[in-house]
Amino acid sequence: MRKLLATSVLLATASFNVSAEECGKVTIADMNWNSATLIANVDKFILQHGFDCDAELVPGDTMPTGTSMIEKGEPDIAPELWSNSMKTALDRGVKEGRLRYAGATLSEGGEEGFWVPAYLVEKDPSLATIAGIKANRQLFEHPEDPEKSAFMGCPAGWNCQITAGNLFNAMELDKAGFELIDPGSGAGLSGAIAKAYERKEPWFGYYWAPTAVLGKYKMVKVDFGSGLDEDHYRACITKEECLDPKPTMYPPSPVDTVVTETFAKRAPEALEYLSSRSFGNQQMNSLLAWMEDYQADGEITMEHFLTEYESTWTQWVSPDVAKKVKQALSEL
């Protein structure tokens, strides 16, 4: 009996060691924006302590990371890849057996739209529609021209400047008395929302999620009354030379976790975690707002997330893995 027990222990130990070796060294792209660096740190901690991987963060950005994964097979994991920006190349990498889409990083996808503060809609629900915005355009005062109303667009040079401008034209907001204003920068755009909120003033403009701004300030996405025409959006609204833009809501932007095929085959249990791991936009908005308020980096925000959102992340892993992660967390 003792001999059988000893053999069982040896087999279990051997199985554990094989599992650890299979995971081995794992490189994770730490992208240069807040949600991506948070997720990268969450993945590193869970893979390291829950799956015994030798996890390491490496600097990353969308195009360089995606290209390197396709051509060089590294890094192993891109936790938050806005895949539309290089979809053709990524799909080719999948077809050639180099990459794999592990799962949706953001369950609702990236979100874009024209927004107004919630306090306006609470007073007048029609302001949640483009028809209501046009009918009450005098609310949205232009900072320089009292004859005009203000629509705050996307900063010059950003891709969203094209789509916001085309949709502004599609809905004939200029004919309704609006002028498209360039905020000058991302900080200028977010600052305009913050200023309006502090003063409880009307505001109408473009923004996106997940962001700290939409975590701090309750905003309502304006309904264009058009539904979504994704084909027209892709074929025209995203193009600078869109000659006949038509109204359409913004489609969600796919935000994926992408891994190399070698990692996927080497570490199936870790892959299962990455396939399950997904954040809702409102949850991520709140995390990014906390991150900004406390001027926290990705590692500190990771600890906050694992401590305060236990009911979320424990759904992504087995009870045994969750126990190991909690133990490591208690030792920080």
TrEMBL record:
It holds the Pfam family OpuAC. GO terms for molecular function: transmembrane transporter activity. Residues 25-307 form the ABC-type glycine betaine transport system substrate-binding domain. InterPro entries: ABC_Gly_betaine_transp_sub-bd (IPR007210). GO terms for cellular component: ATP-binding cassette (ABC) transporter complex. It comes from the Bacteria. Keywords: Signal. Residues 1-20 form the signal peptide. This is ABC transporter substrate-binding protein.
